[in-house]
Amino acid sequence: MKMKINIKVGFLIASLVVMASCADMFDPALENIQNKDRLRERPDMVQGLLINAYLRIPTNSFSFSEVATDDAVTNDLNSGLLNTGVGQWASNYNPLDQWTNSQSAIQYLNEMLAEVENTQYAANPVVNQMFINRMKGETYGLRALFMYHLLRSHAGVADGVLMGVPILLEAQTANSDFNIPRATFEACMQQLYADVERALELLPNNYNNINNESMMPALYRELGAQTGEYNRVFGDDAKQLVSGRIVRAIRTQASLLAASPAFNLDNNQAKWADAANYAGNMLAEIGGISGLDPNGVTWYNNVSMIDNLGAGDNPSEILWRGSVGGPSNNLEQQNFPPTLFGNGRVNPSQNLVDAFPMANGYPISNPSSGYSGETPYTNRDPRLRQFILVNGSTAGPLNRTINTAQDSETIDGLNRVERSTRTGYYMRKLLRQDVNLDPVANTGQRHLQPRIRYTEIFLIYAEAANEAFGPMSSGSFGFSAYDVIKAIRARAGVGVENGDAYLESIRSDQAAMRQLIRNERRLELSFEGFRFWDLRRWKSNLTENVRGMRILNQNNYSSINVENRVFRDYMIYGPIPYSEMLKFSALQQNTGW
């Protein structure tokens, strides 16, 4: 009898389990999917829309797109960028695509604009309004940033017209019309500038605590904010969020793009003047030429500064950066030479090495330079050895000598193993030499990840001012393109002993100064993701083959061809993704793709 009761109870329990399972089949359990009403009750979730955009900023990491240019190659034979450089760049294969990433970010930002005022962030109404204003300002600034990256990657000539991308100002829903045509490049730039202006109306130039109300922007004095309330929203805790200064830097970057030959088809000099003025105003705030950070060349390896950097603080070279984070060795693992337990991924080219002048400032091709092909690394621009490991350089925590010769007895030699250099050079820039990858004593260190450096702003000014005003005109800022380049080269240790005689010889020659400015930009911003885009906006030669250096017997130097660059003329512009063209008939593809 007892057994029968147990069987019945067991059957009943089993039946209930089955019934519950069946119920789940027809009435699914509640999922953790938040609707907009719940979203509005959670300020942190609303701010999550903004955080999603921050996480998509393209300069959150280094792209190393240089390996698709004349500046470098990679020994990673599976690299999409390698394929790009050798002719396999296509509308359905674009490792440098920004369409999906930046459009997604703009979708989050548009959603943020729609929702930001529907949530309470603080009980105090003044503080609450300041939070709303700050987040709206950040949102407009970031939307301008992503428009810039979209234009750089996907703007181009279609049917004879310089086109941009679709302008999206509202969040798209399931009921939206996704078949939106591209706006003109000029319309996109005007929208970018409009977003900048909206951001600047709401954001302070910098985030920092203030101690009296006179330091507060007029908008927030008129709102009736107290100093403590202002500091709660716009004080030190907000450092590294998008500020007015950062938004102005974004505008400066975008204005240079718009003034450049590939995007300024009628050579409108006013666009060069705009770029020069935007950059000049920013530089004037840090003292002009005197604001050039004397330690800015080695910003990535200024160990004491990086290790002691306070929360949210920037060294004077860095205008905007990502999180420093904890100790890591990823960059070194990828790029140290094999004898330092690295993969030697980015291999600088002989082309780039040749771009470094002699220490006296003359290009190595100039008869007055004193360059010798038998001792090619002697008396060169100090940046050469700071940025590139040449044969005989020392590197790593033990200052090990790196032998890149073809007949080297180490695996650092030319093409010795799959991790070895293909060009006879290894990248040194960006890498901390106190990282130890030895498995027995593996260590990491803190690294800076700049989003915008002041040296870039100086170089934007030099390039734009040279085009708009000529090399020697100081305009309203008190410093010229010539002054900027002289200061940058002097900081690097170039032309110091002879007064930079080469620069003095071309000081009034706009065309020669243009080439020097472009070369300084190539050197100063090397391996930071600029060269690929600079060659295109300048409409420069994209097919200069990549060369390396073969060394035998430690003193027999010969240039070798390493990798051909295969680009068509129309590839100064990037493509609209093929998948988008298939889906949306209103889109026009850039000519040639």
From TrEMBL:
Pfam families: SusD-like_3, SusD_RagB. It is found in: Cell outer membrane. Residues 1-20 form the signal peptide. Residues 61-209 form the SusD-like N-terminal domain. Residues 337-593 form the RagB/SusD domain. Keywords: Cell outer membrane, Membrane, Signal. InterPro entries: SusD-like_N (IPR033985), SusD_RagB_dom (IPR012944), TPR-like_helical_dom_sf (IPR011990). The keyword Membrane applies. Belongs to the SusD family. This is RagB/SusD family nutrient uptake outer membrane protein.
